[in-house]
Amino acid sequence: MTYVLAASAEMLFTELPFVERVRAIHERGLGVEIWNWTTKDLDELAATGANFTSMTGYIEGDLLEEDGIARFLDTAEQSIVASRIIAADRLNVHGTGLDGNGQAIRPRESVSTADRSIARSTLSRLADLGAKHDAVFMLENLNLAVDHPGTPFARAEETIELVSSIDNPHLQLNLDLYHAQIGEGNLVELVRQAFPWIGEIQVADVPGRQEPGTGEISYPRIARELDALGFDRVVGLEGWASGDSNLALDAFVNAFTG
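User: That's the sequence. What structure does it adopt?
Assistant: Structure tokens below.
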């Protein structure tokens, strides 16, 4: 195994204050992922010494509307500055802004060819921003059926198309296999197809969005595929614990190292 294992402090050890969640994950020898940095004391988090493998890379905006594009790029630049405080390696973005419940702020039932062209232009500008500041952004796929209805460019098929067409190392994929299983399935083939552009893989089981072993996905099979491909970036658990968070992390680590 050459990749780094990480876990979301947003979804584990939820009974603890946030900084203690970070410490608990770090003490397990895992990287730490966070979402909205504006709600955190970043200096306090930096003092934990944790390896922050990703954080949200924008606060407002979207890929398609004129005012949304401006806010998207502006808050992406602000996020780069914030990421330096905790030395977060990668900045995560979506097809549109999401509210506090993960719902699309500007939902769309479909996207046109013209919309794809606009989104490609916006993401190309984002990649150029990353190049300017030596930062890496990742476009994450989501699912429409359960968690994020109405989100444009949610399917992995769409995120792969966008990122591969731009082909800039400062824009990569966050390939979320939980979301992909709900929306598309065929995960091993999806990993193979997306591999040249993957910056991170996020995991949780289906149904329930909990740790590996609680649902239908064979994560040990995914792990074998990643080893065969020589994947050397991040695999992050972005799921809830079905019970004790330490036991959930045990199951996650075992799925990818057993």
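The chain has one domain: 4-257.
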